[in-house]
Amino acid sequence: MRSAGQTPAGLTPAVAPSLMRTMNQRLLLDRLFTNGPATRPQLARDTGLSQPTVHAALADLEQAGLARAAGRPETGHGRPAQLYEADPSAGTVAAVDIGHDWLRLVVTDLASNQLSRIDVRNDARSARALVERVSAAVADAAAKASLPTTAITHTVIGSPGVFRPQQGSVAYAANLPGWQRPGLAEALTAQIGTPVTIDNDANLAALGEHSEGAGRGVTHFAYLHVGTGVGLGLILNGHIYRGFSGAAGEVGYIPLGEPPYDQARNPERGILEEALAADAVVAYARAAGMSDPLTAAAVFAAAREGVQPALTAVRREAERLAQLIAAVCAFLDPELIVIGGGVGQNLDMLESDLQTALQRITPLRARLAVGELGTDAVLRGAIATGVAIAREAVFTARLGS
């Protein structure tokens, strides 16, 4: 028997209504962010809440600065009902893509609308210098958006490697000098002055391509980044798959290539990465007779013009890429593999030799597509991640119990 003054599940009358009110507020705010402006009757229909409940929850959201009136729809029948929308200015997000050569940053509001963008050279050659460079770039991007850095609700940083929360460090980021030192997350948070999330760049690119790029509507797909490094972001059952320790997708460490492997090679760098990343394309071109100075971009440009040594290098690269794709198909059976990165974006030049090599080594197939978001894939994934975190943070700060 329930004692007097109690509600089901043992909650006191003071707690249960408060929890329900918070749930209703969150439900309405999510609906407004997801589907855009709506009238109170529309919100009641969409959420299943009563109109009095919608009225009360909207009043709370307005008072907290999370929702606002948005005019009235144009109709020819009487006075139309008031529209309401989520207020995207209630918080801001900084998204950062750390590459070997470039730092790319975007500041957005809570509706993912871009407020500013900057791209700056990554000239840092130590972890400390890179922390300072990222912090300065975030401050510059905020200033460009006419905001103080303190107005940024959350910062999401896309980086090669795997973030280890216990150590506050990034593992397996051999292409960023010193980036693996302990305490990195704390240093970034202190220097930037906002809460910080660090995530793998290939995972964020996969999220970006899944939400608004080549992977839209695909439940099982892989995003394969081939550039200065090599990484794989996995979307399984519509969600990012990280594995037990977060290292799922660190395919640069797969021992593919031609054994025996050189004992003098960099142990921090994966065997496959050394055989497939941008510097490998340059090495293949040199071996075929091209002379310095060379970059992977220059090799692909020469191949497009029919330069034979460049075509030889591209064929070698395609054969290595085929080994990785065959392994991904065997382990994961994805519907789609989206290929991006400075090397991967040249899929049109690689595909003929790639398909020939795949026919020789495996009967397994996945549809291949070049990424639609290009160099912005990591940023788009970081924005999506940051916006979700920032919306929850702002809601909790203003209305959460």
Main-sheet strand order equals 6-5-4-7-10
Q: Any guess at the CATH architecture of the largest domain?
A: 2-Layer Sandwich
**CATH homologous superfamily assignment of the largest domain:** ATPase, nucleotide binding domain
Number of strands: 15
Enter the CATH topology name of the largest domain. Nucleotidyltransferase, domain 5
Class by SSE composition: alpha/beta
Quaternary structure type: single chain
> What can be said about the biggest beta sheet?
5 strands, mixed
CATH class of the largest domain: Alpha Beta
pLDDT below 50 for ≥5 consecutive residues: which ranges? 1-15
Q: Please compute the radius of gyration using only Cα atoms.
A: 25 Å
Helix share, percent:
40-55%
Structure characterization notes:
The protein has 401 residues and is α/β, with parallel strands linked by helices. It has three domains: 8-86, Winged helix-like DNA-binding domain superfamily/Winged helix DNA-binding domain (Arc Repressor Mutant, subunit A, Orthogonal Bundle), CATH 1.10.10.10; 91-204 and 378-398, ATPase, nucleotide binding domain (Nucleotidyltransferase, domain 5); 217-372, ATPase, nucleotide binding domain (Nucleotidyltransferase, domain 5). It contains 13 helices and 15 strands. The strands form four sheets. The chain has a five-stranded mixed β-sheet. Strand 12 (230-236) and strand 13 form a beta hairpin. Helix 1 (16-35) packs across helix 3. It starts with 15 loop residues before the first helix and ends with a helix. Residues 1-15 have low confidence and may be disordered. Keywords: Kinase, Transferase. This is Sugar kinase. Pfam families: HTH_24 (PF13412), ROK (PF00480). One of its GO terms (molecular function) is kinase activity. Belongs to the ROK (NagC/XylR) family.
